[in-house]
Write a structure and sequence with these properties.
- The chain contains 13 helices and three strands.
- By secondary structure, it is mainly α.
- It has two domains: 85 residues, DNA polymerase, domain 1, CATH 1.10.150; 178 residues, Orthogonal Bundle (hpI Integrase, Chain A).
- A hairpin with a 4-residue loop joins strand 1 and strand 2.
Length: 295
């Protein structure tokens, strides 16, 4: 069974181009699944039936996994069996008729336009690190980047004359996303004034640098967001991803179409982007209730 699951993981790396984080998640899910089967004296994936799948899901529930986590595990195993059937390594799919656990609609947390503005104005841009931090937050909100995409931006990935940034997203998929005038102005300042001061003649391809020209870690950028949220008196528990969620929601509230937002976010499936329409509808309801004369 270990050989077959490894074959599937190799497929995800080579054919699907999964990121390291996604691969680690898949690998952990598969390891738990195999451990469960072995404890129940099942030693080949072709010997698993639907009853065993239900027993496995019950076991995950007993371990305290939420419906969302169980759904993720089941999706992983579905992918495994689909791959193995195509490869003719197994002859039946025991998860084919097993429904995904209902997770409910977990809406991402977002910030108001005012809160975003307060956050982005918090850094002291008279100092090199303040310039860098301001530019990073402006580009993250201005282009809706994932934090991993932001910290790995290279100098050559940004075009300030044409106002766009080139991003290498999940699955090694490249996309071009516009940036606004605020992001452009502070990034120009960072490149001309702050970056040379911090680098001190060190050569590096990365646009935003930490010590010795290395890219910033995700944990470091998370701390930066927390620091400026505190300075801006924002009481919400925000993370770097909150800026990405806010980017998408504010675009839809402003009238952007869903397909354009999907392209800018780098979502391969529009159903992933559709969660933001629920947030936008909530916003419209609030505006209707606040301003309509018959409410």
């Amino acid at each position: 069974m270990d050989e077959l699951t490894q074959k599937y993981l190799d497929y995800l790396i080579i054919e699907k181009g999964l990121s390291n984080n996604s691969l680690m998640s898949y690998s952990a899910d598969l390891a738990q699944y195999i451990t469960f089967l072995e404890k129940n004296s099942i030693h080949h994936l072709n010997d698993v039936d639907t009853a065993a799948i239900f027993a496995w899901l019950i076991d995950l529930t007993r371990k305290g996994l939420s419906a969302k986590s169980r759904a993720r595990h089941l999706i992983t195993i579905r992918g495994l069996y689909k791959f193995l059937i195509n490869e003719k390594n197994v002859s039946k799919n025991p998860v084919k008729n097993v429904d995904i656990p209902k997770t409910g609609l977990a809406l991402p947390k977002i910030m108001t336009v005012r809160e975003v503005s307060d956050l982005l104005e918090a850094p002291d841009i008279r100092k090199p690190r303040g310039m860098r931090n301001s530019a990073m937050m402006e580009i993250m909100y201005g282009a809706g980047l994932r934090v991993s995409e932001l910290i790995l931006l290279r100098f050559q990935d940004i075009n300030l004359d044409a106002n766009f940034v080139r991003v290498m997203g999940k699955g090694a998929k490249e996309r071009i996303v516009p940036i606004g005038s605020h992001a452009r102005a502070i990034t120009q300042k960072w490149i001309k004034e702050g970056r040379p001061t911090l680098l001190k003649k060190i050569s590096t391809p990365y646009l935003f640098v930490a010590r010795a020209g290395n890219p910033m870690t995700r944990q470091s950028f998370w701390k930066i967001i927390k620091k400026y949220a505190l300075l801006a008196n924002i009481s919400k528990n925000i993370t770097p991803h909150t800026l990405r969620h806010s980017f998408a929601t504010h675009l839809l509230e402003g009238g952007a179409d869903l397909r354009s937002v999907q392209t800018m976010l780098g979502h391969s499936d529009i159903s992933t982007t559709q969660i933001y329409t629920h947030i936008s509808k909530e916003y419209l309801m609030k505006m209707h209730q606040k301003y309509h004369p018959r409410n």
